[in-house]
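Dear H.,

Thanks for agreeing to be a second pair of eyes. The structure we're designing against is below in token form, covering all 177 positions.
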């Protein structure tokens, strides 16, 4: 994938398929190291499957026999001298942590994270997302649980709400540069 936001979208979609009600996405960049943590409270995986899911020929899908999201994500991290770790337990959810060395020539750009978060919320308005991005102590964040408190009965996938999400995140992420 050409940027990390697309990898993050793919991993978060796995969380949605696993029945997650809350997905946390955190990007932390400090001293040339970007750590991305995607954590969910979905079904989780048995240890045997969790140990093998970064193999492209292991998938839980019935429609095709390969799963490339995690293997490509792992490869992207390792090409920068980084790593990928997956921790999962049945009934407790899954956490995927990737580390990228941003000064490395093979480090992919972060991409359009506001659009990724907007897309996730639009497609799954009943799921909660807790997103944060930190660079050298400056933070951009959005938590749909807090938004729900303020919006009451207004759905998160209402066009005006989605537009606000995108514009708000875009503006706050500009301040990280």
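And this is the sequence the design step returned. I haven't edited it by hand at all.
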């Amino acid at each position: 994938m050409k940027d990390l936001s697309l990898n993050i979208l793919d991993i978060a979609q796995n969380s949605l398929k696993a029945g997650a009600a809350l997905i946390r996405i955190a990007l932390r960049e400090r001293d040339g190291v970007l750590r991305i943590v995607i954590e969910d409270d979905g079904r989780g995986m048995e240890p045997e499957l969790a140990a093998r899911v970064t193999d492209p020929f292991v998938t839980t899908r019935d429609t095709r026999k390969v799963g490339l999201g995690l293997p490509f994500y792992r490869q992207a991290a390792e090409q920068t001298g980084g790593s990928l770790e997956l921790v999962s337990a049945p009934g407790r959810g899954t956490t995927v942590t990737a580390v990228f060395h941003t000064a490395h020539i093979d480090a992919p750009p972060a991409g359009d994270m506001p659009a990724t978060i907007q897309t996730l919320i639009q497609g799954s308005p009943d799921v909660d997302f807790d997103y944060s991005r930190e660079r050298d102590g400056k933070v951009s964040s959005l938590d749909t649980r807090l938004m729900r408190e303020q919006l009451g009965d207004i759905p998160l996938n209402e066009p005006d709400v989605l537009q606000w999400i995108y514009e708000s995140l875009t503006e706050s992420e500009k301040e990280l540069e």
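Two observations from my side: Residues 61-67 have pLDDT under 50 and may be disordered. The longest strand covers residues 22-30.

Warmly,
E.
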